[in-house]
Design brief:
With 193 residues, this protein is mainly α. It is 73% helix and 0% strand.
């Protein structure tokens, strides 16, 4: 008998949440467990908000948001958009997630980075890229921690790194997302002048 378990969408989300949260606890994650609470969960929140507003496929948006940084969490910061898409496919395969939807999630992960010029072909990919950036505007203390503790930058280097990152993030936001974080973006720019 060749039995393949059917998972409900809610079961898949719960399992993926558990996998990503557990990965955040491992030493390979240079950002520490706080990356789960201060980055992944805010990205999920914003992705769902944008997805609803833009009538995107909520399933794709939620799972892609949970998995968008799985590559960096597992230690591949430079190419996490590539390794993350591959890892997401492995994870989703465990739950018999449809291949067509998995491909859409992989595209969201592959295209989410502001530092790479990758065309976002779907509204879901645009939601993930924007949600990723929006989370940074909410979590400035985590960016400071990265600049000064993890990357060991001096104050001027840290300031320049943070401003460059936020400027890249601002540029990748879709108009609907810009409206939601415009005040924070302007306040941060003002503080750093």
């Amino acid at each position: 008998m060749n039995y393949t378990k059917k998972y409900s969408y809610k079961e898949i989300v719960k399992n993926v949440e558990k996998i990503v949260e557990e990965e955040c606890k491992k030493p390979a994650n240079i950002f520490g467990y706080a990356f789960w609470t201060h980055h992944i969960l805010p990205v999920v929140k914003y992705a769902k908000l944008l997805g609803k507003k833009l009538k995107a496929d909520q399933e794709i948006v939620e799972l892609a948001a949970l998995l968008h940084d799985i590559g960096v969490i597992q230690g591949d910061k430079p190419n996490h958009h590539v390794s993350g898409a591959k890892e997401a496919e492995k994870i989703l395969k465990k739950f018999n997630y449809p291949e067509e939807k998995t491909e859409k999630i992989k595209h969201c992960i592959f295209a989410h980075r502001a530092s790479k010029s990758i065309k976002r072909k779907t509204i879901e990919a645009k939601c993930i890229a924007s949600a990723d950036a929006m989370a940074h505007f909410d979590e400035i203390p985590q960016l400071f921690e990265s600049a000064f503790i993890r990357f060991k930058l001096n104050p001027e280097e840290g300031k320049q790194w943070l401003l460059a990152k936020l400027e890249r993030d601002w540029k990748k936001l879709i108009p609907e997302a810009r409206k939601l974080v415009k005040d924070r973006y302007q306040a941060i720019k003002l503080i750093f002048k």
